[in-house]
Amino acid sequence: MNLDNLSAIKKLDKNNVAESIANLPKQLIASWDAAKKIKLPPAYGKAGNIIFCGMGGSNLASELIKTVFGAQIKVPMVLVRSYNLPAFADKNSLVIIDSYSGNTEETISCLNQALKIKARIICISSGGKIEAMAKKNKLAHIKLNASLNPSGQPRYDVGSQLGTALHIFSQLKFITLKEQELVLTSQNLITLGAGLAPGTKAKDNIAKKLAAELVGKSLYIAASEHLSANAHILANQINESAKQLASPCKIPELNHHFLEALVNPKRVIRNTAFVFLFSSDYSPLIAKRFGVTKKILDENSIKNSIIRSPANRTLDQSLEILAIGSWVSFYLAMINGVNPAEIPWVNYFKSELEK
Predict the structure, then answer these.
(1) Domain assignment of residue 122, given as a range
(2) 62-84, pLDDT tens digit by residue?
(3) Which of 65, 102, 123, 338 to pair with 135, CA 20 to 30 A apart?
(4) Final residue of a domain: which of 120, 152, 182?
(5) Quick check: helix, strand or coil at residue 178?
């Protein structure tokens, strides 16, 4: 597809995924404002640990917070992507239940367990069973504004879930983040987004250029430190939206084994590409590893590209790379000729489970 053909893009993007991606700055601010209306018990900020429960796109924002603000969060924080809370969960745990639809069975299972142990519970959803359970049990519930995500896909509503979670963590003093900082971040994202949207020609659009380079490849998204969550988010979006294989990997771990696999199967390696998510704020040791890793890929004739953000703050870097990556996944879907909102195999799998 010609990525400058706006009518062709509109025809394929039947569920307005492009609008959801463009709404990232609005999602951040609107969800922060919505979360402000919910006054949480101060005791929640004294929790001995934080357990964030969610599946797929509903647990991406929490991972981003953990990697970007990990040095500030002084209590253990674990992400649960399954049916059960960890064995150490108790009444002193802060359990955050996040389900975009409000009907995710694994997350509902965790909520039932959290109620049983009388944990400190906060619920996030756009409605569904989780909202009903929160009302019934008088739990804090923050409702996501689904209108800012016309695609209906959680992976393109990371902004709403992130803004919500950021305010929760800020209100409970797990992190330090001022509203003015988030507003400035949102404004910068609006400026960046204008150059990434379909209306900007491919010759001036870094997301369109990168998508064109990556088409037809099995992808590895490599990151480290505060951008580690971005690798998972981008792989998630490419897998679901572009229907193209993508896997996240972390430096330095991949340097200890993965490099030896760049030989076989040869036909697979020929169709493999790496995307490095790079930051000038990486520690010197990590930055050096990225350079050497790229050198090895070049010597093995493996295509590799870099996404970076010039922003100064780590949160801004992460969000700008989130914006770029979201558009890359969208344009890959366009080139691959698929509706980025449709997830037929995931839906088939869910229907089989219900039998």
Answers:
(1) 15-182
(2) 999 999 999 999 999 999 999 99
(3) 65
(4) 182
(5) coil
